[in-house]
Design goal:
Elements lengths: L5 H12 L8 E9 L3 E8 L4 E8 L7 H13 L8 E6 L5 E6 L3 E3 H4 L6 H20 L12 E4 L4 E3 L8
Antiparallel strand pairs: 1-2, 2-3, 3-5, 4-5, 6-7, 7-8
Length: 169
């Protein structure tokens, strides 16, 4: 029997994790990022001819299906310029939930901060983060995982707070 290398095992894990959206309006293009609960993919929405991001629960983490569904519901309920809008929610043929959201082009705050901006620009970004979190708190939602990796600075200067997977209502 041949032993598989760690790299090969990781490659096979990625293949089994790849979502099957056959028959849907979405076509997965590539991976945008991975988190503790799932993977975010860049996809094409054929119905509206636009790029979207799709967050899918990992195969290994089937027990967190309700948590992903709750994240999608919380985000869909919180409509604010500092939050990524949710477009769709569904369940794959293998039982894993997913949700579709706006694809944000830009840089994470930790990447953006590597090139220091003027003080007024840093304060503008900080204020936008505070406004978004204050809005969520006013709606009874606590993020619980606010960090630079969960904030995006969009291509047009928009500031978006991401990853509400550990949020509590």
């Amino acid at each position: 029997m041949m032993r598989l290398s760690d790299a090969m095992v990781e490659h096979l894990r990625g293949l089994t994790d790849w979502p099957d959206l056959t028959g849907s309006r979405y076509e997965i293009r590539n991976i945008i990022g991975r988190g503790g609960m799932g993977t975010v993919y860049l996809a094409l929405d054929h119905a509206l001819d636009r790029e979207v991001a799709i967050k899918v629960l990992s195969v290994e983490d089937q027990t967190r299906g309700e948590r992903l569904a709750r994240e999608a519901r919380v985000l869909a309920r919180l409509e604010h310029p500092g939050l990524v809008p949710v477009h769709d929610y569904g369940v794959l043929g293998d039982g894993r939930p997913y949700y579709v959201m706006k694809y944000v082009r830009g840089a994470r705050l930790d990447e953006y901060a590597a090139n220091p901006a003027e003080l007024h620009e840093r304060l503008r970004i900080f204020l936008r983060i505070c406004e978004t979190i204050a809005f969520a708190h006013a709606a009874g939602v606590i993020h619980r995982d606010l960090k630079p990796e969960n904030v995006m600075i969009g291509a047009f200067g928009e500031v978006l707070v991401l990853d509400w997977g550990t949020a509590r209502v």
